[in-house]
């Protein structure tokens, strides 16, 4: 099968069926052939006065995909699931917002297990990892000044090794999974994510099930890590816990440092 056959366009009607509408998990779902960034598009909609809570935007191709710290990433058309959703955070204290991207990671891991039979783990704060390779990344942004969070996901589906922008990247195809139907994968991710968002809102932050599930899926907790903070300051120690705001708590041996943003490297125990 050639790459074009492996990569049919997304089917909006199939994606909306049973997911979008009154009494269903999402209010609106749109698919575009190409855009710069689905996150940027939803944020722009919110800035223009559109209520984006419950909105889903998917793109067959992102030509200016965004990652943390302003990084850019790209993949060939239709080789990824690139989606963003809008979440109204009004009912949840801002101190609990940090758990929303973590909940998204749990939803993705659960969906991959259910649909693809792939066992993935979570590297704090937002990488979905399989066998040391990054399968997906998550970016949460606030559509300020409104209390609306935009959650973005990029999941590598049929990306090949020669197309990968980073040697650390992997994809479902590279993992030899037969579950490469992006419609099926996206539908399950959106269903799992809607369930996690509802629980997050009800609890006003991290509910006990989310905390337990995140701990179970975490590759970072219990590991010795190097956290590179903004300004290139390093914190090295044992990743002990995730606090109530979603920060990673690292025991350096002399103190416990709560980290809200950093690049995390998992170290060998002897380091």
TrEMBL record:
GO cellular component, one term: cytoplasm
Domain BPL/LPL catalytic: 13-201
Keywords associated with the record: Biotin, Ligase
Record EC number: 6.3.4.15
GO molecular function per UniProt: biotin--[biotin carboxyl-carrier protein] ligase activity
Gene3D superfamilies, A to Z: 2.30.30.100, Bira Bifunctional Protein, Domain 2 (3.30.930.10)
UniProt cross-references to NCBIfam families, sorted A to Z: birA_ligase
Protein name: biotin--[biotin carboxyl-carrier protein] ligase
Organism: Mycobacterium fragae
Upper lineage: Bacteria, Bacillati, Actinomycetota, Actinomycetes, Mycobacteriales
């Amino acid at each position: 099968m050639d790459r074009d056959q492996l990569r049919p366009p997304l089917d909006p009607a199939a994606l909306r069926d049973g997911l979008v509408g009154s009494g269903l998990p999402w209010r609106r779902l749109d698919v575009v052939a190409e855009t710069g960034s689905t996150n940027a598009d939803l944020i722009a909609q919110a800035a223009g006065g559109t209520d984006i809570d419950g909105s889903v935007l998917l793109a067959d191709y992102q030509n200016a995909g965004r990652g943390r710290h302003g990084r850019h990433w790209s993949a060939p058309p239709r080789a990824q699931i690139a989606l963003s959703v809008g979440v109204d955070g009004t009912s949840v204290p801002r101190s609990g917002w940090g758990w929303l991207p973590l909940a998204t990671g749990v939803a993705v891991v659960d969906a991959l297990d259910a649909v693809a039979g792939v066992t993935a783990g979570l590297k704090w704060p937002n990488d979905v990892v399989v066998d040391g390779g990054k399968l997906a990344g998550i970016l949460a942004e606030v559509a300020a000044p409104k209390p609306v969070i935009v959650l973005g996901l990029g999941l590598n589906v049929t990306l090949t090794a020669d197309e990968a922008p980073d040697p650390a990247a992997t994809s479902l195809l590279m993992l030899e999974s037969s579950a490469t139907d992006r419609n099926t994968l996206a539908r399950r991710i959106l269903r799992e994510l809607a369930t996690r968002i509802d629980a997050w809102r009800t609890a006003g932050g991290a509910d006990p099930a989310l905390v337990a599930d995140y701990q179970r899926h975490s590759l970072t907790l219990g590991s010795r890590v190097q956290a590179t903070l903004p300004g290139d300051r390093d914190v090295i120690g044992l990743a002990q816990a995730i606090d109530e705001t979603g920060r990673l708590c690292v025991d350096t041996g002399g103190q416990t440092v709560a980290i809200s943003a950093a690049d995390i490297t998992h170290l060998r125990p002897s380091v």
